[in-house]
Automatic annotation (TrEMBL):
Domain Heterokaryon incompatibility: 26-76
Stated name of the protein: Heterokaryon incompatibility domain-containing protein
Highest taxon, organism lineage: Eukaryota
InterPro entries recorded: HET (IPR010730)
Length: 321
């Protein structure tokens, strides 16, 4: 703002006409109206010229949202005075029939982390909040209604289910599809813009180290939407589409035995203590690892191909006994 005041009249007026400037002004006006003295806005409160500040902001953003009193969500493609209750491709053809805000990668944590989220339409008219709209938001995002109303307890959800909430979300930078999920999983890792999809590979490795007992991270592509490319890790969150109803089930220790299994993924060797059972000479399985809410149990099978002393695996999801 200090730089803006020092600009010449025409340049200052040009900036004031920008949508981003209006969002800042309207947010401040709403915060003042709600009785708040301070407001944090990602578009102007992060100096992206500083890699250190940008990295700190990415690491801390989820916690900042969680500790905030309220989060404002501006839906700039909603013109009416009511929150959309049904898909409408004629109005929201860019985002699968829903407001585009729900298609952005970074807004996932803005929806989950804060205690309160208030939604505004294009003209900054309030159209509802996270609590009152929980049923509709669950329909849009497939995030369980208790998470929207009571907050996220990571112990109650497996990795595949959390990943599925980001499956259809997009970011401008490829790397941000991974970086925008750091807070959701409570992990940290260095940021290297320019590494492309390697960022999501590294994210999965960090998650495996933190949640080493949760093998659902290998349950991607449960709907067989993607051709298998010979890797044990997913390429991006979209590979977890359809995993929103996967639940982690503890292994029956009395009927299983642990075995140290090494999985190789693009130069990385993952060591996992898995309970494995021989199915045929070519398969080993993970019984009772996952289940659907209707209590039908599933097992993950791994096809092992040995070539030059390297192991390659193909995850397949099949009904279990």
């Amino acid at each position: 703002m200090t730089q803006l005041m020092g600009m010449a009249g025409p340049a200052r007026n040009e900036i004031r006409r920008r949508a981003g400037y209006e969002k800042i002004i309207k947010s401040c006006e709403q915060a003042k109206k709600d009785g708040y003295r301070w407001i944090w806005i990602d578009t102007c409160c992060i100096d992206k010229r500083s890699s250190a500040e940008l990295s700190e902001a990415i690491n801390s953003m989820y916690q900042w949202y969680h500790e905030s009193q309220k989060c404002y969500a501006h839906l700039n493609d909603v013109c009416g005075t009511f929150f959309p209750s049904e898909q409408d491709l004629s109005k929201f053809n860019k985002a699968n029939g829903w407001p585009e805000w729900f298609l952005r990668g970074w807004t996932l944590q803005e929806l989950i982390a804060p205690k309160q989220v208030e939604f505004f339409n294009k003209d900054w008219v309030p159209i509802g909040d996270k609590g009152s709209l929980a049923e509709t938001l669950e329909k849009i995002t497939q995030i369980p209604i208790d998470v929207l109303r009571d907050g996220l307890n990571r112990r109650h959800f497996c990795v595949a289910q959390l990943m599925s909430w980001a499956a259809d979300r997009k970011t401008t930078r490829v790397e941000d599809r991974a970086y925008s999920l750091l807070g959701l999983f409570g992990v940290d890792m260095p940021k290297f813009y320019g590494e492309g999809k390697k960022a999501f590979q590294r994210l999965q490795l960090e998650i495996i180290q933190r949640y080493y007992c949760d093998h659902s991270i290998f349950a991607w592509n449960s709907k067989r939407q993607f051709d298998w490319l010979g890797d044990v890790l997913a390429d991006d969150p979209s590979y977890f589409r359809g995993c929103h109803d996967v639940e982690k089930v503890e292994l029956d220790q009395s009927s299983s035995r642990g075995r140290l299994v090494c999985l190789r993924s693009r130069g990385h060797t993952l060591r996992q203590q898995l309970a494995v059972f021989p199915l045929t000479s070519s398969y080993i399985g993970l019984p009772r690892l996952l289940r659907k809410p209707d209590h039908h149990r599933f097992q993950i099978s791994w096809i092992w191909l040995l070539q030059d002393s390297c192991c390659y695996t193909l995850p397949t999801l099949a009904p279990g006994a």
